Amino acid sequence: MASEPHASGYLSAPLYLLCVALVTGVAIATAMALRPAFAHKMLEMTGLEAMPQAVPNSFYAARVAPLFAQHCISCHGETRQKAELWLDSYAFVLRGGRHGAVIHPRDPKTSELMTRITLPAGDDKAMPPEGKTPLSPDDVTVIRLWIAAGASPTMPAAAIKGVPQLVAEVTFPDLDPAGTRRRRAPLANVMQQLSARYPGVAAYESRNSADLELNAALRGATFTDTDLKAFLPLHDHIVHMDLSGTAITDASAQALAQMTALQTLRLTNTKTGDATISALAALKSLKFLTVTGTHATGPALAPLSKRGVTIHGDGDAD
Amino acid sequence: MPTDPGATEDRIRVWDAPTRLFHWSIVALVFLSWLSADQGYMTVHLWSGLTLLALLLFRLGWGLMGSTTARFSDFLHPPRKVIAYLKSGGGLLHAGHNPASGLMVIALLAVLLAQVLTGLFGNDGLKFSGPLALLVSDDVSDQLTRIHGIIFNIILALVWLHVVAVGFYHFVKGDNLVAPMVSGKKRRTRVPEGANIIFAHPVLAVGLLLASAAVVAWILF
After folding, report:
1. Which of B73, B93, B137, B188 should we substitute to test contact with A (largest number of A Cβ atoms within 10 Å)?
2. Helices A13-34 and A36-45 meet at what angle, rounded to 10?
3. Are strands A264-266 and A212-215 parallel, antiparallel or unpaired?
4. How far apart are CA A317 and CA A292, in angstroms?
5. Which of A86, A145, A154, A159 is nearest to A114 (CA)?
6. Are B169 and A11 in contact (CB under 8 A)?
7. In this structure, what is the dihedral angle of CA atoms B135, B137, B141, B142, given to the nearest 10 degrees?
8. Do the beta carbons of residue A268 and residue A291 sit within 8 Å?
9. In total, how many domains does chain B have?
10. Window from B3-7, B54-58, B107-111, B179-183 with minimum mean pLDDT
11. CATH code (residue B188)
């Protein structure tokens, strides 16, 4: 169903295209005037807008950016830009969102971001929104002080006074069951035998470790020098040892000297003395030693103390 | 199937009512979808998107069994024909879509369909999730939400091109394409001699729309 056309219009093609270019330009300019975020995007695309970067050790990088990363960028970052607001870089933070700047340097009271993060929970405009982890009062203070100080990208972390202390972040290593099984394998047979003979005395330090704790204190005087020697096959895996109240004597000095991984040793109320203490000089990992109720003397303990071993009790039991 | 029921001395009916209603409904719903998402009225956005989906499904069916000028077979042409048409500067008259506008229709239908489908799996990061978002992981939902945003820009570009092309026909070639999409009728001088347009019965359109709505309801519930 096609045939030749008859009528023609009232503009030439070049003139029409010129009009299109003008109208499109006016439309884009209007959109830029009405939507600051769009304006920033256009200026950035054309290289007409500078993108200031924060200095790595600045207050912003050390204290403010981590708060945005933790609480804000899931909705105002790479994946999603609610209200066209990006909070994942200093330039974008200062740029603001759909309705313009959310931070007014030196004026936290008029900064939309401050208003939002201080609204009561449950308010429709409160940020982070209901269901997300809220900012703590200290977090809010950090952001407020940063804005009040000028919202600088370069100001050093220590330059702003009265800032709440940074809470250290503690991370735990991931469990590695296969690796743990592999490290424990050489000990398995000995551990099985000793567990049958001395139930509850030797145990792994943690679920993720092949290091051992030896606690003979509960066996009291029934645990002797001979019993301790039975644990020598595990000598380089025992890191903590409690021999308090056992029948251990200086006869175990050489056995203890072979416990090269030992970090903590409790000899409270045992018949050990300076011979044992002297033998412990070979234990480079030893950090804590308890000698209350033993025959250890100050001169014998002095080298260990000098080396940095923390010693509890002063020995010299009679 | 009746032919040319509204023909007059100087005008001939080329677009059926369902096609015209579909066209202007899409215009309104795309605008409403943008506005509701922009202002955070996500419930309105949801229903606007679902209505779009129903209309798009309807249009796919209408493209197979609707009136002559609404059918894909009438305006789907191989690329060489489209290129030849563009090179000729819009040489020949067509009762319905010309080869270039046919391509535009297909492109718009494809991106609109992609837009509503990605929207079904998207989320706004707050309290709103698309009706099918729970079928995919959060990461996939976030990714589809990003694509949803990108496709909107493609829709804007296509709408711009569509409007510019319609303006070109109006101002340069003297062919008003907007009025026929409102009234359904074109000047006889703008329709090829002997054009035989067969109009599908409106009841078929109503049935098709109900079936499309049922599919959407099934997705929703």
Report:
1. B93
2. 120
3. unpaired
4. 8
5. A145
6. no
7. 170
8. yes
9. 1
10. B3-7
11. 1.20.950.20
Q: Are A272 and A247 in contact (CB under 8 A)?
A: no
Q: How many CA atoms lie within 13 A of A285 on its CB side?
A: 17
Contact by Cβ (8 Å): A36, A96: yes
How close is the nearest chain A Cα to the Cα of B213, in Å?
31
What pLDDT was estimated at residue A163? Answer: 84
What ipTM, to 2 d.p.?
Answer: 0.79
Query: Looking at the domain assignment, is residue B5 inside a domain?
Result: no
Structural domain span for residue B16: 11-220
Scan for tokens 């019965």, then name that residue.
Answer: B201
Contact: A11, B91; criterion CB under 8 Å = no
Report yes or no on B83 lying in a domain.
yes
pLDDT over threshold 70, residue A253: yes
Could you tell me the pLDDT band of residue B1, with boundaries at 50, 70 and 90?
very low
pLDDT digits (tens, 9 = 90+) for A143-200: 999 999 999 999 988 888 888 877 777 777 777 888 888 989 988 899 999 999 999 8
Q: Write down all domains in chain A, each with its CATH number in brackets.
A: 59-159 (no CATH), 179-312 (3.80.10.10)
In a domain, B4, yes or no: no
pLDDT value at position A161?
82
In the structure, how many helices (H) and strands (E) does chain A have?
Answer: 13, 6
Inter-chain CB proximity A129 and B174 less than 8 Å: no
DSSP, res B5:
T
